[in-house]
Amino acid sequence: MLHKCRTYHINNNNNTDTAETSDQTYPVWMIWKKRRYVVAVMAFFGFFNAFALRVNLSIGIVAMTAKHQVILENGTTTYVKEFDWDSKVQGYVLSSFFYGYILTQVAGGWLAGKFGGKHVFGIGIAVTAALTIVSPFAAKQSYYLFMALRVIEGIFEGVTYPSIHAVWAEWAPPLERSRLAAIGFSGSYIGNVIAMPLSALLADKLGWESIFYIFGSVGLLWFVCWCTIVSNSPKQDSKISNSELKYIQDSLGEQQVSRIAKHPWKEIFTSLPVWAIIFTNFSENWGNYTLLTQLPTFMRDVLHFNLASTGIMSAIPYLVLAISTQCAGQIADWFLVKRIFNITQVRKICNSVAFLGQAVFMLLAVYVSSPYASVICLACAYALAGFIWAGFGVNHLDIAPQHASVLMGIGNTFGTVPGIVSPILTGHIVTTQSVKEWQIVFITSTCIYILGFIVYVIFASGELQPWAIHTESKDKNVIASEKHTD
């Protein structure tokens, strides 16, 4: 076990005198025979539901606040809004989810590290789904009640990203981290691809309420499947083959998760690589949440797409992103397996591609003259954004796998601030729906992307940090001492 850990750590430094292990029981394409890929696929559908539940309001609010024809008793035709919310109110409603989301990031990571990621991840999505089903009732009472419900949804969904890192820490061999994480995280983008046009279709054919009823029900169905199929760790999985179990355990070596791990808080908060991830997370989410919450409105008011077209056109960038995320994961792991670059270099290269690409194409999106050219620019920005999951998105697992869920929780806490601030700021800037106002919004995101790029290139690392090695060794000594006492 010690030999395997050293093998991986030397490989981190790009040394060619290393041995490699691999699971050759089944061909590469038979992923359903490999339990770690089954977990990744189930995580894919989990994030699919998480983001469908999150983003449906971006389309729903367009339908909820749109004018619709009403014929009065005297035969007069007029146009009214079911919810007469101005841009500022809409900004508060769209951002309310993140008020709760920011509260449970670190707690979700801690709970997942203590009890395992499976249950925390599943319950987070299940409760959000159940609350989504009652959202129409809350909205019709008052927007304050609706906002309160969205805050509670955010509280429960806030545990998802930190807790899934606890799953990867148990299931993902170091040389497969990028691709396994990419499979899971790309579900969030496919969730956007499906949710946006489907939400628009449902609102048009069945009424905006159907958006919340249908997506909430699908989320609950996924939860049942997740609890049935997925195990907390490979050694708890009754269907895993002996060869795959040995491969995962040997690959992780001393990086295998211990439930009694104590987190070195001082070392975490004084670590420059940790702060590089935190700031980069903040920078990425600023642009991402701006588009996530405002893209349908931008397409309706500036690009002049109707509701159905808005859902379809808003989904195109996310479809491209889902594909590019898979490609980025494969490319990153290929670089590592072939020893072309070490982990630090791979993370920085992938992150730079994502951030610089998004900065350039997001800016172009509001300066090109054609609506379709604008969509193409947004699609290009999202295509390059897929590389974040081979960059800072899995970097927590490189520098401190034992503490990855907590590190993700800390990073996502800071990363959720843009989800709160960006929609409100946009609501105050975009008051007349002019192109110039939207240019200010997108220029702000571009500048923040560039800052994130600079900080990550200077301070990030892919090396297992000394404080992580010390803590893991200490945990093992504690276990050995307890066994000796018994």
Automatic annotation (TrEMBL):
Which GO cellular component term is one of those annotated? basolateral plasma membrane
Ranges annotated as spanning the membrane: 37-57, 92-113, 120-139, 180-203, 210-231, 349-367, 373-394, 406-426, 438-459
Q: Which domain of life is it from?
A: Eukaryota
Just give the chief location class: membrane
Per the record's keyword annotation, is Lyase included, yes or no? no
Example GO BP = carboxylic acid transport
**What keyword terms does UniProt attach to this protein?**
Cell membrane, Cytoplasmic vesicle, Glycoprotein, Lysosome, Membrane, Symport, Synapse, Transmembrane, Transmembrane helix, Transport
Q: Which reaction does it catalyse?
A: 2 nitrate(out) + H(+)(out) = 2 nitrate(in) + H(+)(in); N-acetylneuraminate(in) + H(+)(in) = N-acetylneuraminate(out) + H(+)(out); L-glutamate(out) = L-glutamate(in); D-glucuronate(out) + H(+)(out) = D-glucuronate(in) + H(+)(in)
InterPro entries according to UniProt: MFS, MFS_dom, MFS_Na/Anion_cotransporter, MFS_trans_sf
Q: Please state every residue range assigned to the domain named Major facilitator superfamily (MFS) profile.
A: 38-464
How the protein sits in the membrane?
A: Multi-pass membrane protein
According to its UniProt record, where is this protein located? Basolateral cell membrane; Cytoplasmic vesicle, Secretory vesicle membrane; Cytoplasmic vesicle, Secretory vesicle, Synaptic vesicle membrane; Lysosome membrane
Pfam families for this protein: MFS_1 (PF07690)
GO MF annotations for this entry? symporter activity
Q: What does this protein do?
A: Receptor for CM101, a polysaccharide produced by group B Streptococcus with antipathoangiogenic properties.
Know the name of this protein?
Sialin
- Taxonomic lineage of the native organism: Eukaryota, Metazoa, Ecdysozoa, Arthropoda, Hexapoda
